[in-house]
Prior knowledge:
Blueprint (H helix, E strand, L loop, with lengths): L9 H15 L4 H8 L3 H14 L19 H12 L7 H10 L7 H10 L27 E8 L9 E8 L5 E7 L4 H14 L5 E4 L14 H6 L6 H9 L2 E4 L7 H20 L5 H19 L23 E6 L5 E4 L2 E4 L13 E6 L5 E5 L2 E3 L2 E2 L4
Parallel strand pairs: 1-4, 4-5
Antiparallel strand pairs: 1-2, 2-3, 6-9, 7-8, 8-12, 9-10, 10-11
Helix pairs in contact: 1-2, 1-3, 2-3
Amino acid sequence: MSQETFRLSQKELQRVAVIASCVKGDLACARAAELLDLTPRHIKRLKARYRQGSAAALAHASRGRPSHRRLPDAVRERIVGLARSIYAGFNDHHLCEKLVEREGFSLSRETLRRLLRKQGLGPPRKRRAPSHRQRRVRSARLGELVQLDGSPHDWLEGRGPRLTALGMQDDATGRILAAQFFSSETAFGYLCLLRQLLRRHGVPLAFYGDRSGVFVRNDDNWTVEEQLAGKRQPTQFGRALEQLGITFIAARSPQAKGRVERLWGVLQDRLASELRLAKAHDIDSANAVLRKFTADYNRRFARQPREQQTAWRAVPESLERICCFVHERIVSNDNVVQWEGRRFQIPQQARRFSFAGAKVQIYQALNGRLSFYYGDTRLEHTAIPGG
């Protein structure tokens, strides 16, 4: 009959040495109890076990036996099967949440991690080696600084068109204030998000974004009017921020706005998995999943600001003249305005007989509706058939 070999730990080796001295009579039971932080009665039990089986008898009795808390084999196989099929591509933390909330399992993230690694299932994303950076301190109040950015990505993983997610995140709390999928990163999408933000929360103090042409002018072509004024005309989004009194801070590197960049890393992991789980295949179904995901993300990851007083300001009444596209045109001698190949007739108004030669503003709402203004006076207009 082969004899089993035990490898004792340092703690167990110390216990063997003390008990052996106690058995030989070199050490009293009371002193041995002090050294091993045990009771004298238990020292006597260990002495009896040592006399029966020498040092091996002092090894832990549960060694080699499966733990009572070990998951049954059927449960382990079920979890691995779900990780390889329905929840393929989920990270460990996200997968653990889904197994607990949707599948009814009761397990910790560490237990799941060990099980997956034992089966050769590694994390979906590889972590880069850490580098030394000094993180900027968060803003103190909610609404003091809002980071905004876009992320073009294969969110639907081939099940539908390639989409771009646009989002606005509060710097103080990390809350996603507004987010939506669009076909591309355009001023239209950011104006839609801005309108959502204003209606839900209010006017923030500042925005923090990149140097995209949607936010700032990047071209070197100055018009004559700009040269005479000594400053550039803002973009459509920049004009809306000026009307709202919002400061725009242009970051000079992606690392400068690292908080919203890290948000995209989380969303490209978790949100992509949720879209896959919901079988989203177009922009409407993707936005439906995104709305639920945003509420769940804020519940899980948003933190409390350092100061309870918020920095949100009241929203102006003329919101339809802010979150829109504004174009300036000069009225021709026959009181006609031309815009994008279309012609509009301005009839005689109550306050002015003719607008020939006047500069008017065309406000194009996000739904495409047009409004004509001369200063603060709204002008009646009719479209001329045939352009």
